[in-house]
Automatic annotation (TrEMBL):
InterPro entries: Amidase_dom (IPR023631), AS_sf (IPR036928). PANTHER family: AMIDASE, OS04G0183300 PROTEIN. Residues 47-484 form the Amidase domain. Pfam families: Amidase (PF01425). This is Amidase. The lineage of its organism: Eukaryota, Viridiplantae, Streptophyta, Embryophyta, Tracheophyta. Residues 1-22 form the signal peptide.
């Protein structure tokens, strides 16, 4: 990580305390930060210094961040100056944001999906979501660690390890799995290395780490947010979304990043019909559960005796939702669920392997400069750097299988058709027949159901197990149902307020 000079944190806090208006950095939200900016008790520079200091003290333990931006403080100064002299740019003016390391920036930061193979590559431009973040006034704080290549290289590598970033740790229980692939983003938000982070998801990569790190993750409908400039897995399933500590923060970030991007034109154009006039913030309603019909997918709340705490906690949550005016339809099942959850049966594996090779080759060929220009080059790089890339332990079986594919042929087309059929007969039919606004799951079990259909989901903190490891609840729905999902997620969060900061238990 780049070295910098900081005001030591204790000194900064002391100075703020003496001034009588100590800003509470712990659990700070976008709203509380903006208020402090407005009334002059906090500057973007102070906030950025705080996060940089926090990263440098916690990262050796948590491995949540790969690089910090050597230009972050300068960007913060610009934001402070603009606030004094001109209009605010947007809702994220002066707010530092950590980006998952597969989201490209055209600046001094590297974009490597956690791999040494991409070190030194230069993106032709900022990713579409980064352009929007900068337009909203955000400060790019750095790149978050992730499962290398979004967990699409090896079947045996942990889902929160990358060669460049190391092994991500769960800040609640250091030995517990933080899940991936957006592990660093979720860990960093949980441990307050930033209030705002972005993750990406192909199948579970926002929902699962959010679930395990007691943070809020929004996995938007595919196409709602641009994937241009994101190291891809599959354009059919990939989506970029916020990971923050509160639903309100995540929604304000969603507002900043959604919309048409000519660099990802087909998908963002198709999904732009879902974006409500006036944005998503209007759906942060404390009575958002009132009148909602929510299906309980019991298979995902099915704990054995060691999950007695979770079973009890979820029953309490269901009662809270009912008291807040929701109608819960219990014991629902997604048709063909076992097929959906088996990647070799659903068609997902066949489709992803071929899509990955095409999409990665296209991403690599568009880079302004890169040591690798194709999946074949990356495979060769790994073979030549066995120690750094830990090839002996983890291998690259998924890469090899992907390299064997030859485009979207009959087998891939039939796999994709099968996934649509499973989605139609599964989630779509269940939602229609029961007139549902959403389905609920735990154990991040909805991820694959949502992934293969391009559907949205929101994970919200729901509790802590006897071992102290967090767990969440996920609200999922049909394409474009973000307004409904946000209403339910926000009302649930406000009624329960489960999240607490991590304690770094050994
Ligand atoms: C990006 O990687 C290069 C090595 O290729 C390194 O020198 C540089 O410091 C990295 N950038 C940041 C911001 O860490
Ligand atoms: C819950 O799990 C048990 C044992 O694994 C299984 O027999 C049962 O069918 C499951 N129930 C539901 C609703 O999935
Ligand atoms: C790739 O194809 C070759 C030749 O058909 C086969 O021997 C090999 O097992 C395949 N590798 C993977 C990982 O699928
Ligand atoms: C789903 O299950 C039904 C009933 O078992 C079966 O007829 C149908 O072919 C399955 N659909 C898919 C896409 O596998």
């Amino acid at each position: 990580m780049a070295r910098m000079c900081f005001v030591p944190l204790p000194l900064l806090l002391l100075l703020l305390a003496i001034s009588g208006h100590a800003f509470d950095f712990q659990e700070a939200t976008i709203d509380s930060i903006q208020l402090a900016f407005e009334d002059g008790t906090l500057t973007s520079r102070q906030l950025t210094e705080f996060y940089l200091e926090r990263i440098s003290s916690l990262n050796p333990l948590l491995h949540a961040v790969i690089e910090v931006n050597p230009d972050a403080l300068r960007q913060a100064d610009v934001a402070d100056r603009e606030r004094r002299t001109t209009r605010r740019r947007g809702g994220l003016h002066g707010i530092p944001v950590l980006l998952k390391d597969n989201i490209a920036t055209r600046d001094r930061l590297n974009t490597t999906a956690g791999s040494f193979a991409l070190l030194g590559s230069v993106a032709p431009r900022d990713a579409g979501v980064v352009r929007r973040l900068r337009r909203a006034g955000a400060v790019v704080l750095g790149k978050a660690n992730m499962a290398e290549w979004a967990d699409f290289r090896s079947l045996s590598a942990p889902s929160s390890w990358s060669a460049r970033g190391g092994q991500g740790r769960n800040p609640y229980v250091l030995g517990a799995d933080p899940c991936g692939s957006s592990s660093g983003s979720a860990i960093a938000a949980a441990a307050n290395m930033a209030a705002v982070t972005l993750g990406t998801e192909t199948d579970g990569s926002i929902i699962c780490p959010s679930d395990k790190n007691s943070v809020v993750g929004i996995k938007p409908t595919v196409g709602l947010t641009s994937r241009a400039g994101v190291v891809p897995v599959s354009p059919r399933q990939d989506t970029v979304g916020p990971i923050c500590r509160t639903v309100s923060d995540a929604v304000q970030v969603l507002d900043a990043i959604v919309g048409f991007d000519e660099q990802d034109s087909a998908a963002t154009k198709a999904a732009s019909k879902y974006i409500p006039h006036g944005g998503y913030k209007q759906f942060l309603k404390v009575d958002g559960l009132k009148g909602k019909r929510i299906g309980i997918l019991r298979a995902f709340f099915n704990y054995s005796s060691d999950g007695a705490t979770k079973t009890r906690v979820f029953e309490e949550h269901f009662n809270t939702m009912r008291r807040n005016g929701a109608t819960l339809i219990d014991n629902l099942e997604i048709a063909n669920l076992s097929t959906i959850l088996d990647v070799s049966q659903s068609g997902e594996q066949v489709a992803l392997l071929a899509e990955f090779k095409l999409a990665l080759n296209s991403y690599l060929s568009q880079l302004s400069n890169s040591p690798v220009r194709s999946l074949a080059d990356v495979i060769a790089f790994n073979n030549e750097h066995t120690a750094e890339e830990r090839m002996e332990e983890f291998g690259q079986i998924i890469f090899l299988a992907a390299q064997n594919t030859t485009g979207i042929g009959p087998a891939e087309r039939s796999a994709i058709a099968k996934m649509s059929e499973l989605s139609m007969e599964g989630l779509e039919k269940l939602m229609m027949e029961n007139k549902l606004d959403a389905v609920m799951t735990a154990k991040s079990g909805a991820a694959t159901v949502l992934a293969i259909g391009g559907y949205p989901g929101i994970s919200v903190p729901a509790g802590y197990g006897e071992d102290g490891v967090p767990f969440g609840i996920c609200f999922g729905g049909l394409k474009g149902s973000e307004p409904n999902l946000i209403e339910m997620a926000y009302a649930f969060e406000q009624a329960t307020m489960v999240r607490k900061p991590p304690s770094f238990k050994q």
